[in-house]
Hints:
The complex is a heterodimer of chains A (621) and B (393).
Chain A: H1 18-24, H2 29-34, E1 39-43, H3 50-55, H4 59-69, E2 80-84, H5 88-100, H6 105-135, H7 140-154, H8 165-185, H9 200-215, E3 228-232, H10 240-247, H11 251-254, E4 258-264, E5 285-289, H12 295-317, H13 323-327, H14 332-339, H15 341-344, H16 361-372, H17 374-382, H18 397-414, H19 434-441, H20 445-455, H21 472-492, E6 498-501, E7 505-508, H22 509-525, E8 534-538, H23 545-557, E9 560-563, E10 576-579, E11 595-598, H24 599-602, H25 604-608
Parallel strand pairs in A: 1-4, 1-5, 2-3, 3-4, 8-11
Antiparallel strand pairs in A: 6-7, 8-10, 9-10
Helix pairs in contact in A: 1-4, 6-8, 6-9, 7-9, 16-17, 16-18, 19-20, 20-21
Chain B: E1 4-10, H1 40-51, E2 57-60, H2 70-87, E3 91-94, H3 110-114, H4 122-130, E4 133-137, E5 141-146, H5 167-177, E6 186-191, H6 214-223, E7 228-231, E8 238-242, E9 245-249, E10 267-276, E11 279-290, E12 294-297, E13 308-311, H7 318-328, H8 330-334, E14 342-343, H9 344-350, H10 359-373, E15 375-378, E16 387-390
Parallel strand pairs in B: 1-2, 2-3, 5-6, 6-7, 7-9
Antiparallel strand pairs in B: 1-10, 4-5, 8-9, 10-11, 11-12, 11-13, 14-16, 15-16
Amino acid sequence: MAKVPSNTGSFNARYMTFKQVAESFIKTNDFDKIITNNHTVLMGSRGCGKTTLLKMLHPDAIRDWEMFNSKSLFEEIPFYGVYIPADKQWSKQIEVFEGNFKNETRFVNSVSKGLINLNVLIALCDTFRSLIQIGVDHNLKEHEISLATELIDLWNIPKPIAPDLYSITQRFYLYVNDLNVTIQKADANKKLDEFCYWDFVDKIGIAINAFEERFKGFDFFNKKPFKWALCFDELEIAPKWLFSELINGNLRSRNQKILFKLTTIPTVSSEKETDQFSSRNLDDYEIVKMWVYDSRSQTNWRSFCENYLQKVLYNKFNKNVSPKSVFGEHNYNKALKASSPPVFAKFIKTKEDSEFDKDCIMWYVMKELAQIDKSFYEYLMRKGVNPLDPIPTKKGQIDQVHRKIKPIVLYRYYFKKIDNQKRTRKVVSFNHGKDYIYDMADGNPRAFVNLINSFLPEITLNNSGEAKMMPINRQATIINDFCVKYFYPRVAYYAESVVLYNKKKIITLENIINKIGEYFREQYIGADFRPEPYSLIRFDNKCPKEIEKLFNKGLEAGGVLIVEDEIKGVRKGTKIYRLSYSLYSYYNLPQRTYAIKDLSAILDTLLEDEMTDDIQLSLNF
Amino acid sequence: MSTSIKIAIISDLHCTSKKDTATITRLHGELLPKPISRNPIESIKERIIFEKLIADYLLCLGDVADKSDPSGLSNGIGYLNEIQLQLNAKELFLVAGNHDIDVANADPFHMLKSLDLPAIDPDSKSSYWNDHFCIIEKDDIVLFLINTCFHIRTTDDLASSPPFNNDIILDDINSRLNNYQNINKFKLVLCHHHPVQQSDFNDKYTSNDLIDGADRLLNIVKDNGFHLVLHGHKHIARIKYDDDLPIFCSGSFSSLENINPFDNKNTFHIIELKLDNHLCKGKITTWVYNYNSGWNKCEDPNFSFPAYTGFGCSYRNVKQICDEIIDKFNNWYKNEEPNKILPFNEVVNFFPDIEHITPRQQDELMRYFRDTYGLEVCPNIKNGATHIIKLKL
Lengths: 621, 393
């Protein structure tokens, strides 16, 4: 069994070498989607694996993956990947630059174009270098020099220069430095070098033709046609004109040998015209959504998690250990027993298909809840269920009433207190089980790795060498601690997530997320029992621009996700959102989806609660 | 007696146990073991495993603690022991730094003394603390450990010059080093403070804590045939000569002072020493630390200290080296085929001393090749050259 690296520290693919990415990479359905012969957009929040997938298309990563896994991969991929990272530093600089030179649009565009051109060609040289090392079996250096000599002439690079790819790359880096200095000096009168006026598609075109001509005779390159994928990572921090050119422009159709593989973050927009991802713009692209957005993607995600966790456990114990033997399956009844052993011990054997029978566990819970929750009592009465003996009496009742409300009933009961006051529980036993744990990470591999790392020290074998099932309450405690220390801060304290609303009030992403979480929690354990609590969000046009900005930050951070399951009563194409499951245990919500609420309605108290101009001082003696 | 050994150098860790010190050192009180790349100790251990690095000795050049933090010192010694184990190094040797001194205590050196430092054997310990130096001889190595902090008794002393301009001390040193004058072993000097001027990056010429009497001390060291001086304190990796004596200033392993404002980097070094008939040469390999990717060899040829460099080259004039190389490989140089490269390992086979040139000499060599012969050493001699190529003109 292929091993994952033994030190499964949290990773950020941005800083990993191609080899490191390949060593820890596990093939998923998403990878199969991006290696098609199409233009592709990978969409997802930070940490969901977009950079990992793009980096895996680089020849170095493919070669290392093949060695590590003793399997072939090159032939499966119908192109050669050119990985082009976005540079957060110069994107910030350009933003400032654009601000300082609002009237010098042409100059600003030329500078930013120069940076893009250079970065693209540096990336292309790196792919060339890699392919020569992998695919040329003799006189590597001479072939490289031959190609480099031609590139120097084709790209008009000033001489003297050593005719190899390293020297060409170093020269381009020097040009990048020069442009950075130009930006910092804010010198709009500076005469720009000609690479600021290049068209990178043209420059790539002539270079890849030169490469093809030179290397087409080698066996390695005969296995597939010469096609190249320009992999632009983190387009959301690239200059806007580039994004526009790639999505809206005609770059895609200019050279049939070039494919575009892009990554970006999903956004919400109140104006359809500015919605970058309207169907009109994306006809040529295949969109790969890298989060759990429907039941099928959930299945795929769980399969990835299962596979990864099996490898991690194998790494730890040097034998096959099933995740189920460690975490078990999610089971509300077992959770109840773990939370209150004296109360529920008597329900020793409760099968799922008889739990609503008299004297069984759910019958007991419903009866108890009806006694302290008047609204639930009245609901049962309306539904023709006897609150004092809530067994299903009519055909279909068990599915339409009992099973449907079961999670709500359990949560209400769990947090019940006499007179509608909620008892707070730090450790919620419902938060356990392997699928529950998988779903918490919501399609984000980095989050999942971090979560598993928090469990690993406590996963042990018994004296017989079998995995010990981790107690439900212990799982719930680790999950609670992890949510508080990692999942919640990851979203709530996301960078640049503050706005000034109506020029008076500061609102943060944390405010928004808390409002949503608390609103939905009240739906389950609030004053009145609701059989259809709100648990989904519609971004409506009553939301102000400031909220739109924060909501997008929530999408970027992975705290809010788009749902694409067909929802009853919702017109197709309407975007519906939910909180990430990673936050559900923080707000004590069951992993279920029910009814939809407009975001403006959820946030109305937040937006109404404005500061007044006059500050009232009170002195207390 | 081995004619080659490897020594690993770690200096100026500045460990603290305090919270909110992450801006002054990477080994602070809130350091977590993972992610590995963000923990310099875990990361260097990973790098040692990955590159199969070994060393005969691990040398620490002082300032294990930061501002005499006792728990910091204790943690730091623990880290050094972990790294020693990982390197499979026979022994760890350490000298006191000014940050390891607790001036608030009646015995400012009590922390280090309590940890059996700088060496385990009682004679060496006694000599180091009482005589301000000790000499330790092993099978293949002689170490002259100087306590350049012996004068520190008050806070004011922390920034003052170690006073070695003292006839009695120097006489004592000379007479004891005399015993090793003709010994054909690797002979190294370890101290914390700098014995030669080492300017800071902001061009402020600071000589307040240069060893007083350093020139006399260095003369004694040279007269007794010592091969290399190693010191810390400045956090800037450098190598220079005093006559023929190489003086290596180690970078800081984990302090952020004198690092962040100047785009300097934390460093870890392994020096491979060769001894041939009392002549010592060295090859220095350096790793730099990055918060996100851990320890790696620096790929930036413009960084102040290269990934690969050396000392002890028999030629001081690198132009002569270049001329001799061209002479030897004249056929290749004059060859009409422009694409033919000269593999660098062939150059090294012909002229092994090219691996023992200092960073300044490396710059000069590259420049001379380029300007005089139209040749480029690729990728860069400082990052590990693989070939020499003719420039496209």
